[in-house]
Design a protein that fits this description.
259 residues, alpha+beta, Umud Fragment, subunit A, six-stranded antiparallel sheet, rod-shaped
């Protein structure tokens, strides 16, 4: 039978702690799954922007861009975070929205293709903003194309811009990750410590029970002695005659004579 000590917690309390740890683990996994990729992407973009300032930095061919003008309203709004993906320029067609970088500038423009021309063996695109009244003055050449627009995150541009600077990364990415790692380390430390205390308590209880069993066994050997051997009394088979009984007549002589 299991012996229950005074420090042993009730099953319902242990169950609550188990649920709490499970929820904490889920929250931690979500934090890591969201914040760690953001930190990796930001570091990659920052590194590429410094090592290759003439090119728009990408991650796996995808370039995140922050919209600062309303030329593509209402398709793309100011402060949206949009994503463009590197693509084969020969597959681009009228109606596609592309991001391109005009020659001599660092600004990236995202407009819609209104015309595709191939004059003199050279491919070029005419573009226009959805909110603009006229097409762009200069054509877009294949080497200027950053990528084709694939999707947007409405209103996330400001946050993405803040996360690109060191202060934003520290506040929104590094600090939550560090806090979770510290929490997980402390949780594991106290769990291991409590587990060790429980094991030590069980070991002490087992030693106490062993000592008690040995003491009872020794006491039994001292109190319970084997009974001494008492020889049984000898019984004689010769019984004396009983007074008052007539003596038995002697046997007659077989030949019939008197003695």
């Amino acid at each position: 039978m299991k012996r229950r000590t005074g420090e042993e917690k009730a099953p319902e309390e242990t169950g609550k702690q188990g649920i709490g740890h499970y929820i904490a683990n889920i929250i931690g996994i979500v934090i890591i799954a969201v914040l760690l990729p953001i930190m990796v992407v930001n570091l990659t973009l920052i590194t590429k922007s410094y090592t290759k300032p003439e090119k728009v930095p990408t991650v796996f061919g995808v370039a995140p861009l922050i919209v600062v003008s309303g030329s593509m309203h209402p398709t793309i709004m100011v402060d949206d975070l949009i994503f463009t993906k590197e693509t084969d320029v020969n597959t681009l067609k009228v109606g596609d929205v592309i991001a391109f970088q005009p020659a001599g500038v660092t600004t990236v423009i995202t407009h819609r293709i209104t015309k595709v021309e191939n004059e003199g063996g050279g491919l070029q695109f005419t573009t226009k903003g959805d909110a603009n009244n006229a097409e762009d003055n200069d054509p877009v050449y294949p080497q200027q194309v950053v990528g084709r627009y694939i999707r947007r995150l409405p209103g996330v541009g400001k946050l993405a811009e803040f996360l690109q600077n060191p202060v934003g990364m520290i506040i929104f990415v590094a600090v939550p990750l560090i806090l979770f790692v510290l929490y997980d380390m402390l949780r594991r430390f106290f769990y291991n410590k409590k587990h060790k205390d429980d094991v030590d308590a069980e070991r002490e209880e087992l030693e106490r029970l062993r000592a008690l069993a040995a003491s009872l066994e020794q006491q039994g050997e001292e109190d319970i002695a084997a009974p001494a051997f008492v020889p049984a009394p000898s019984i004689s088979t010769a019984y004396p005659p009983v007074e008052g009984e007539p003596a038995q007549p002697e046997a007659d002589d077989p030949e019939g004579g008197e003695a």
